[in-house]
Amino acid sequence: MCYNFHCISSPLIHFALYKSHHSPLSHHNFRSIDQSINQSINQSIDPQFIREQMFKFLKDVVSGSGAGVKDLPYNIGEPHSSAWGSWTHSRGTSKDDGSPVSIFSITGSSANDGHLAAARNGVKRLRTVRHPNILSFLHSTEAEISDGSSTKVVIYIVTEPVMPLAEKIKELGLQGTHRNEYYAWGLYRIAKAVSFLNNDCKLVHGNVCLESVVVTPTLDWKLHAFDALSEFDGNNEVSTGPMLQYEWIIGSQYKPMEMAKSDWATVRKSPPWAIDSWGLGCLIYEIFVGSKLSKTEELRNTASIPKSLLPDYQRLLSSMPSRRLNSSKLAENCEYFQNKLVDTIHFMEILNLKDSVEKDTFFRKLPTLAEQLPREIVLKKLLPLLASALEFGSAAAPALTAFLKMGAWLSPEEFNKKVLPTIVKLFASNDRAIRVGLLQHIDQYGESFSAQVVDEQVYPHVATGFSDTSAFLRELTLKSMLVLAPKLSQRTLSGSLLKYLSKLQVDEEPAIRTNTTILLGNIAGHLNEGTRKRVLINAFTVRALRDTFSSARGAGIMALCATSSYYDAQEVAARILPNLVVLTIDPDSDVRSKAFQAVEQFLQIVKQYHEKTYAVDGTEVTASGNTSLPGNASILGWAMSSLTMKGKPSEQTTQAPPKSASPFVTAVSNASSVGSSVPSTTPIRTVSSGIADQYMDDQPAPASPTSTDGWGELENGINEDQESEKDGWDDMLPLEDEKPSPALANIQAAQKRPVIQAKSQASIPRPKSTSNVGKDGDDDLWGSIAAPPPKVGAKPLNGNSSAAVDNDDPWAAIAAPPPTTRAKPLSAGRGRGSKPTGLKLGAQRINRTSSTQKF
Question: How large is the average pLDDT for residues 516-526?
Fold first, then answer.
């Protein structure tokens, strides 16, 4: 006998479609149904077979089961030492992403086993009841497992990762005040969960005890074990049967008197919370005694119960059900729950309901408060709450201080996992206060960043601070580069960072200009050789050494010393020493002292080059005869903060600040690699004090840089062909081979001649303004060895170009301008004794003439 295809398959297909919407393993069931349909069509099978198949799949739909353990999308791991009732509590992981879970399982001999029926009730209740203090349900399945000749039925429940409360208490090992604070927080959460079931849902848990509580990784207590959970039917006066269908699985020691006597009429007349309030009393006893309750009489032993909790404990265990304390009253009014830990966590959990003043006050106290709370709870509970609040913007900027302080208590691995991801997200915040907080504490976490994270995610957001209108934020951004720059790529360093630093060297704040020079000296080792050749000398000499702020000039000297190993002898002799010698007569004593030290250091480099290249008799010697010099200083200290500059920028003076406000680190440096060419031997001439003041005070501030990185494009490190009149980053030109004036030659000869009779000052010939002077005007015996006259004559120092040099001052003829430059004529009325003009901010540029001479 054959059945019509539609008649047989149609009901089964309906069940299959229902199954596809309600079972997590619907694809397997649909495949089984399809096989059954094909089997029914191809064979003559009694309709009873079809009904059995339909009943089997319907049962699977109702129970929410799957086809077996092999289809469970989780891996079952090691079991915990304890679990509620007949359940086994095991660790587990997801097969998809490896995330941790907990897997509860219970086994029955047959599908009609009473424990399995109660377990199915627990699965249904746990799936439908949702509350922050109730265990979170993820998945469930029921499977048949063959064990030789018999078949067993197993139910699995998959939840968030938790562990038994007794096991976690033993692991934490808290004592004294910390233990009481943690117990108070846990009991508070369980009381809120029980109140939700009794008062809001009108449900009775029936078995609140130590084993029905589990702990999450964030140390939160959660309620589970819903096998006996039932509706409270107190309004049903006609019913005489048990209100709790599965009350027989509850241990007798946890049953209140009316339940132990099966007086269900009294139970129905009692408040909904009567049974579970008794259970809360049992839980309190077990956690403070530290062991499971073995008989009801033990509840009278109150020696271990805290005095502040004892009155409420006794009310929970009242012999009269109607007088038992409601769990909601326990959570709201109990004195034991009023402590720092409970108040702190409760404030964090309702943070969105607080106003800005309350938040600010709370977070300013939190760093100190966190030290007084249990360390384990702070790291596992408060730290994640803070991270979430900062990421979503509900926390104020002061929370960042507490967040970083807590993060410092973590191991490096946990810090990278729990703290760094939040910090990276915060760098994208538009809140200026958050950005300031991140930059102020960057030394606490900056080293933990990977180079890729800094270059791609952190630096693009930090760089916006370089052009911020707040001088304080610009300065913090600048100082943060000391930590971040070593992790930046060469492309970012040369293409982005140096552009910002070039602009900051002409910032209106003197301290920012000074700290920019210091930063360049500290990160020079991370720049490639070509960039160093193009940038360092220009930045330190053209701008820093000519700044009107004395500390900026001092920073330029120190930066040159700290980076001396990057300069060859030719650069030292032609570009560095001429600029340093000028500062030996600087108005500021600290600058002069640093200048003399630097001149000695760089002269030693040139001397070493000479000894290494030429012997006394003109033959070359080996490099083994070099004089060793100290190595580069590791880090230069920051100058004072720009916030300490109370006056306006135009009111700053060139006087050196107190040494305490400018903690420069003494920098010594190593000799650079020796260049291939011989440096010029032209003597370096110093400038009188009056002219030095004029050069430092009377020059206009340089314009904004126009080159790629702000320091100009140089060929082989020196641009000698043309001079930019726009960007203010012109290179220092080498010295010209100028010959001294006739008057200078006469004086030099007179200094070497035996002293017989002093010459009158009136006999010193006057210098001519432009023309070269021959030997015919000098008939002294030493004229033949005197230095040749200069190619370009110096302009007179007074306002009248045709006026003669003062005969009363024999040194006026040799008061030459700085090396490679031509003295700028003074304006009318500005003589040597005139009062200097007011200072101007920014690096001051000295106008120099072009030179075609090359080294």
Answer: 94
The reported pLDDT for the residue numbered 613 is 82
Give the Cα separation of 145 and 537 in Å (integer). Answer: 81
Radius of gyration of the chain (CA): 44
pTM score, two decimals?
0.65
H or E element that contains 150: strand 150-159
Looking at the DSSP bridge assignments, the partners of residue 230 are 204
Helices (H), 463-588: 471-484, 490-492, 498-504, 510-523, 529-537, 550-562, 569-571, 577-582
Instruction: Look up tokens 């020059």; give the residue.
Output: 699
Give the whole-angstrom CA distance, residue 427 versus residue 339: 35
CA distance 115 to 108: 7
Q: Look up residue 649 and give its two tokens.
A: 């920028």
Q: Pull the structure tokens for residue 827.
A: 């304006």
Q: Which residue has the tokens 């045709």?
A: 802
Joined together, the tokens standing for residue 636 give 């230069």
| Number of helical (H) and strand (E) elements in the chain, helices listed first | 33, 10
229 CB neighbour count, 10 Å cutoff = 23
Residue 556 to residue 591: CA distance in whole angstroms? 10
As a whole number of angstroms, the distance between CA 619 and CA 638 comes to 46
Does position 586 have pLDDT exceeding 80, yes or no?
A: yes
CB 588 within 8 A of CB 652: no
Mean pLDDT over each residue of the chain, to the nearest integer: 74
More confident residue, 550 or 617: 550
Dihedral (CA of 696, 697, 699, 703) sign: positive
Q: Which amino acid is at 391?
A: E
In which residue are the tokens 């019913």 written? 239
**Cα–Cα distance for residue pair 356/432, rounded to 1 Å:** 16
Lowest-confidence range among 470-474, 580-584, 622-626? 622-626
Distance CA 831, CA 555 (A): 31
